[in-house]
Amino acid sequence: MTNMTPSVPEHGPAPSSLRGIALDLDGVIVDSMRFHAQSWREAFRHLGFDLPGEWIFEWEGIPFAQVIDLALARLGAEITPAEKQALHHLKYQHFQATFQVIPMAGISALAQMLQAFGYRAVVATGSERAVALRVLKTLGLAEIFTAVVGDDDVTRGKPSPEPYLKAVERLGADPACCLVLENAPAGVQAAKAAGLFCLAVATYLEPHYLAAADAVLPDLNAVASLLRQEYADSGGQGRWQL
Prior knowledge:
Elements: E1 20-23, H1 33-46, H2 53-58, H3 64-75, H4 81-98, H5 107-116, E2 120-124, H6 129-139, E3 145-149, H7 162-171, E4 178-182, H8 185-193, E5 197-201, E6 215-217, H9 220-234
């Protein structure tokens, strides 16, 4: 097994070759989607709709207003603007009351490995930045990430490329040296629209949902193994060789 501790060049790599990694939050760092799905189900139930929880997994990362429209279209239903606002409020209330910060299996070891390799990491999420920062702090990972790009930092959320374009800007790295780690179709679409290499992890959905990614892996341990081998091959500089 390759030693995880990198050897750092005396003067450091050139800025253009610095590696950057952008990670989604829900389903990559924190095991939160079960709470989101149940909260949406409860909100829709108040209006008399039975919303399958697996639909929410498909729409992970998409702004709330679009989730409501997608759900209504699939249900073949129409509601008033006031009812849409009520749905959003009910979902938020239920989520706040039930959400527990549970780390995804393998995230702590992966984050520590990225830090040891000298890779700069940023979170790009459909959640609000304050929520993401609170999660990272609770998990003891806040110092590992250079920045957080939240829903309130962009005008268009995933699947728009804007969140990942902003993430690359915050990383200050060449896009060719930036990697995205995602677990949702909208996030994969956003990463590819931003012109970035994307690894997907099948944490909630079957791999075929994530087929637009450059590679789909079963879990974060597999991601760590791949990146460890890539580091051994590349020395941790320049374009990703995945």
